[in-house]
Fold these 2 entries.
Entry 1:
Amino acid sequence: MNFEEVKADENEYLMHTYGRFNAALVRGKGAKAVDVNGKEYIDFTSGIGVNSLGFCDDGWVKAVTEQAETIQHMSNLYYSPVQIKAAKKLCQLSGTDKALFCNSGAEANECAIKLARKYSFDKYGKGRNKIITLINSFHGRTVTTLSATGQEVFHNYFFPFDEGFEYAEANNIDDVKAHVSDEICGIFIELIQGEGGVMPLKPEFVKEICGICAEKDILLMVDEVQTGISRTGSFLCCENYGIKPDIITLAKGLGGGIPIGACLCSEKLSEVFTPGTHGTTFGGNPIACAAAYEVLSRVASEEFLSEVRKKGEYIAEKLSTFPNVREIRNAGMMIGIVTEKDNAKEVAAKCVENGLLILTAKNLLRLLPPLTITYEEIDKGLEILKSVMGE
Ligand SMILES: *Cc1c(COP(=O)(O)O)cnc(C)c1O
């Protein structure tokens, strides 16, 4: 098949939910991908922060294939040593008490919302079930996580939405306080709004939210679906802010390219779910957990994290000398670029034509390179970006 044939079949057989770039990728290694026509690309996306270790990393492939050859699935009605091993590692690395595995970011957030509401129901009874989220946030595409998402563009078509959310302005503590009431059970935040345009919360604001939560037994819930798994130069972005949330959600980078999400909780929530109150057929699947265990074993060492920070700084520094760059917002290898010409979408499309995979978020260019990208791959990608930015 050539690209035109792939495109025609896509048009005929897939629902039209994406505006796609003109590339049909068929294989990859590290931060290099190859398309159906044999053309090569440098990857600054890791599939939206998913392929933490790049394409087809040797250790990751070994972990996944060995697990596939051993036992690929069992129901959650049985004890799964590989799932338990991944949970133990995750709790140890995150300083949380318990994990629940699911299959995506939206599902992890659904779990977080259920957990917060049940905690409050068990302790305070009915009516204390609302959650404050932030304007410009993104929490997923299920009906409830769309409701949680603080952007009006997502609150269309699919009525009725869930009413249990209130939206406060990011970095405006007075607005958060104005929404705090006896009905609130949780405050749910992204520390750096990813889809919202790589917008970091101010440490002061986060600290004040922590204070409100502690004072009123409101749960602090942090969506680390994009920022977690060493993306920002610490294993969790929470560490950059020095906070210990009650609930943390993870997904994207956790499985290194196999679908898996996780909802983590502190000790005070560890017995909130009881048999029958939550569950999933696929969640905690052995292959997904073997993949996650391999990722977790690799990305959290101080040596690895310091490399992520160094590479992130290296990229940001080089970018700052490029034409058409107005502002760079970066934490580790989560990097947003505001362009002078406000032409991120065009730049991204041209980059793909020239052999570089790159993301946008709102009107920004966004880079989420695989954490294992080499300096050689970085330089090659940046060279393409620079020439496109100069056009
Ligand atoms: C991507 C993302 C989600 C949704 O994850 P899915 O796996 O697509 O359901 C939720 N929250 C944040 C912060 C994300 O970046």
Note: The chain has two domains: 3-57+301-389, 60-299.
Entry 2:
Amino acid sequence: MAATLLNVFLIASFVVAAAAASASNFYQNFDITWGDGRAKIMNNGLLLTLSLDKASGSGFKSKNEYLFGKIDMQIKLVPGNSAGTVTTYYLSSQGPNHDEIDFEFLGNATGQPYTLHTNVFAQGKGDREQQFRLWFDPTADFHTYSILWNPQRIIFAVDGTPIREFKNMEAIGVSFPKSQAMRMYSSLWDAEDWATQGGRIKTDWSKAPFVASYRNFNANACVWSNGRSSCRGSGASSAWMNQQLDGTSQQRLQWVQRNYMIYNYCTDIQRFPQGLPKECTATVSSSTKQ
Ligand SMILES: *[C@@H]1O[C@H](CO)[C@@H](O)[C@H](O)[C@H]1NC(C)=O
């Protein structure tokens, strides 16, 4: 009996270990979608690089579609003069009323800070931008960028520090992404018309190719396939399904928002002369209560 239980336990841990080990293999988890050879998978699937030159950028997407999950990716952004370049990393469903959860990294001239741009689309409606500076040089090393997406909330995190939370506020009539499965997408492309300092700084093509690197993808997620959802992980590894910000995380979120947030649609009164979006006023009143 005990031996049988132990066997079951060993087999179960082996399956979990195998799933975790395969989780970071880019061959297994992703398809290169465009770029004509500019996206490359290397080191037996442990590393992926995207590159951009004057002719084209490049991109990839996950083979799986997810309906809720905690998705982590380590990214090292384009170093040096990255002005005009945009590196994207996002979840998106398809179709006209799509849902989307975005990280976008807007490059800058050498020594000038990147802008981390975030957005949430639900039922085709976005316009929920928040932008941040980072508290480290994102081109010097890999850092982990995470999207936690469960039925109650979406949390954007950088190296485990939450930078943004978008709560489910369907109760007050704000739609929330919860019924359309999403794939993970990433791309590196040129947006010199607007990306850097409002388009004033153009891409310096003499520095091409521009390269961004990816490793250690991990998805603790529910995979959507043939109309059914199957959730990976159990016990501690599925805690993301009900995860919320505890007191310490709330404080870190506030630290980031106080010191590193450079744009918040929720305070852009000029943009919304008719009144701020509903979720903004609800967020303000609930966070002042805490
Ligand atoms: C680039 O650097 C300038 C100057 O520090 C800053 O104003 C700007 O927000 C930075 N980011 C982008 C994407 O332009």
Note: The mean pLDDT is 91.
